[in-house]
Each structure stands twice: as structure tokens, then as C-alpha cells.
User: Which sequence fits this backbone?
């Protein structure tokens, strides 16, 4: 089971909020706080059709080059656990027609202070804590 966490996504364009699972994807490398969101999630957050400040970009992925919309500073993201919440961070949204779930980049994972302990069995924790947490199922 890969590592997924429950996140709250708040659109900074519409103040709409959505709670979903997000896949921690260390292969999604980024210098900025970027997250991939499927078009269906973007619609619910009023980020689709793309806002005026969105740009169409070619992204190099494991499956080859894909066209995606880049929406800067679009989402406030927080990891939600029963006993704790992460700090909230502002992320760029990359709206893609090719992903089925929300993906968090390596930069976002690090900024949220998440440590992946066992990627196959889905174990993780927040930096500095002893509690070992389990991956959530896809929401």
C-alpha cells in the first residue's frame, strides 16, 4: 500500500474546501510547493475551467510528456489526522487530465514535515514524533 494521507484542500480563489486522500509521490520532484489535482477535484474547487492566471505547460512525467494547467498559489493544504493537523501551506495546483488522485510533490512532503517510514506497507509519521501512522485508503 503506498502512503496516502488525508488532506484538506481550500481553494484560495473560491474558498471552497474539499477533504480527499493524497498520494505522497517522491518521484514527483519540484522546486516549488506543487500538487497535482485531477480535473474533477479542480472543478469542485472552482479551479476548472482554468482561471485567467493559469498557464498551459508541458510536464515531463514517468509516462512521457503531458499538457497540464499550472495555477499559481491556488490551494491551502493541510494534512488532517484524528489527533493532529499539519501546518497549512499554500501550493500551486497542477490540473491534469491524466491523474485520478491528488499527488503531493517531494517539496510539499518535506514542507509538511512528513517522514515516509515504509513505502510498501504505508507507514509514516510527522517529523519529531514517535507515533507511527498508517496510510489512509483512497477517498
Assistant:
Amino acid at each position: 500500500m503506498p502512503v496516502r494521507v488525508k488532506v484538506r484542500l481550500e481553494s484560495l480563489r473560491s474558498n471552497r474546501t474539499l477533504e480527499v486522500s493524497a498520494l505522497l509521490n517522491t518521484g514527483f520532484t519540484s522546486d516549488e510547493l506543487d500538487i497535482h489535482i485531477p480535473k474533477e477535484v479542480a472543478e469542485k474547487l472552482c479551479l476548472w475551467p482554468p482561471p485567467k492566471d493559469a498557464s498551459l505547460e508541458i510536464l515531463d512525467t514517468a509516462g512521457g510528456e503531458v499538457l497540464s494547467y499550472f495555477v499559481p498559489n491556488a490551494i491551502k493544504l493541510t494534512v488532517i489526522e484524528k489527533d493532529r493537523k499539519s501546518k497549512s501551506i499554500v501550493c500551486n495546483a497542477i490540473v491534469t487530465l491524466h491523474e485520478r488522485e491528488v499527488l503531493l510533490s517531494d517539496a510539499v512532503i518535506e514542507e509538511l514535515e512528513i517522514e515516509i517510514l515504509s513505502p510498501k506497507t504505508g507507514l509514516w509519521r510527522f517529523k519529531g514524533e514517535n507515533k507511527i501512522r498508517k496510510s489512509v485508503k483512497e477517498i
User: Anything to note?
Assistant: The mean pLDDT is 96. The CA atoms of residues 7 and 22 lie 7 Å apart.
